[in-house]
Amino acid sequence: MFDFRYHALSLAAVLLSLCIGLLLGVAIGDQGLASGARDDLRDDLRSEVVEARDETRDLRDQLERRDDFEEETLPLLVGGRLESRRVAMVLLGEPDSDTFENVRDVITQAGGDVTSVSRLRLPIDAERLAADAAGTRYTELATQPDLLEPFGRRIGEQIVNGGRFVRQVRGSLFTSSSGSLGGAEAIVFAREADADADADEIERTNAFVDAMIAGARQYETPIVGVELTDNDPSQVDWYEDRGIASVDSVDLPSGRAALVFALVGAADGAYGIKSSSDALLPEAVTRQP
C-alpha cells in the first residue's frame, strides 16, 4: 500500500544527488577534462534529472489517485459494521483534534454514533472528586488513596452501562465532556503523554485508567486506543501495556478501517503501518458484519 511513497522518496533522493553532481561538475570541473566530455557529462546528468523528475511526478499522481480511491471506498468497506452502536471517546492529555475528527467520521460511516467525548482531568483531583461524590463512600477519596481503584472501576462500568454516579462527578472527573454518558457499546481512547508530569502523578493516572478499563471490560466491551501517523512519541506501547488493541494511523483510510474492525470484534493487537504493528488490519476484516 505504501510502496509508491517509498519509491517516490527514493527518486527524490536520486534527483537531489544528480543535481548536486551536476552543480559540482560545472563548478569544479577538472581543468584537464576535455570540454566535449564535460558537456556530454552535463547533458547526461540533465537528462537523468529530467527523467527522475518526470517519474516522481507520475508516482505522485498515482499516489493521489490511490488516496482518492481509498477514501471513496472506505464507506463501502465499513458501512453498517457498527450499526446503531454507541461509542464513548475518552481523551487523556491533549491529543490532536484531528484524532477525534477521524474517529468520529469513520464511526459515523460505519453506522455508529460517538455519543460522548470526555477529557480526563489531569492530574486527578481527589479532593474535588470526593466533594462531588457526596453521599457515597468516595467522599473519603482524598484521605484514602486505596479508594481510587474501585472508584475508577465504577466509572468504567458506568461509561458502559450509564448511571447516576458518573454524571454526578462528571464536572470534577473531566475537564470537558460533551454528549450523553448514558452507556456505550465500545470505547476509544486517545492519549498524548504529558512531558511535565512527575513519576508519582503518572503512576496514579495509570492506576486510575487501568481500573476504568477493567470496569468496562467486565461487559466484554471492545476498547481501542488510537493515534495519528505522526504521533511522537507513539502511544502504542502504552496501549499494549493496558492490554487493549491499538491503531497507529487513524488519519489514514487503512487506520480508520482498522479501528472499525477492532471495535466490531475482540481484537487485542496493534494495527497500522508502524514497526510496532502486528498487522495492517484485524482478522475481522474478513468477516461479515
Largest sheet: 7 strands, mixed
> Helix-strand pattern, N to C?
HHEHEHHHHEEHEHEHE
Q: Tell me the Rg in angstroms.
A: 26 Å
What portion of residues is helical? 40-55%
CATH class call of the largest domain: Alpha Beta
Structural class: alpha/beta
The unreliable regions are none
Task: Provide the residue-averaged pLDDT.
Answer: 86
Give me the side-by-side strand order of the main sheet.
3-2-1-4-5-6-7
Number of domains: 2
Reported by name, the CATH topology of the largest domain is Rossmann fold
**What general outline do the C-alpha atoms trace?**
elongated
Second-tier CATH architecture of the largest domain: 3-Layer(aba) Sandwich
Give the end-to-end Cα distance, rounded to a whole number of Å: 24 Å
Give a structural overview:
- This protein has 289 residues and is of the alpha/beta class.
- It is built from 10 helices and 7 strands.
- The protein has 2 domains: 3-76; 82-286, Rossmann fold.
- Strands 3-2-1-4-5-6-7 form a 7-stranded mixed beta sheet.
- The radius of gyration is 26 Å and the shape is elongated.
- The mean pLDDT is 86.
What's the quick description here?
The chain is α/β, with parallel strands linked by helices and 289 residues long. It has helices at 3-27, 35-78, 97-109, 126-132, 148-161, 164-168, 170-173, 199-217, 236-241, 253-264; strands at 86-92, 113-120, 174-179, 186-191, 223-226, 245-247, 270-271.
Task: Walk me through the topology.
Blueprint: H1 3-27, H2 35-78, E1 86-92, H3 97-109, E2 113-120, H4 126-132, H5 148-161, H6 164-168, H7 170-173, E3 174-179, E4 186-191, H8 199-217, E5 223-226, H9 236-241, E6 245-247, H10 253-264, E7 270-271
Parallel strand pairs: 1-2, 1-4, 4-5, 5-6, 6-7
Antiparallel strand pairs: 2-3
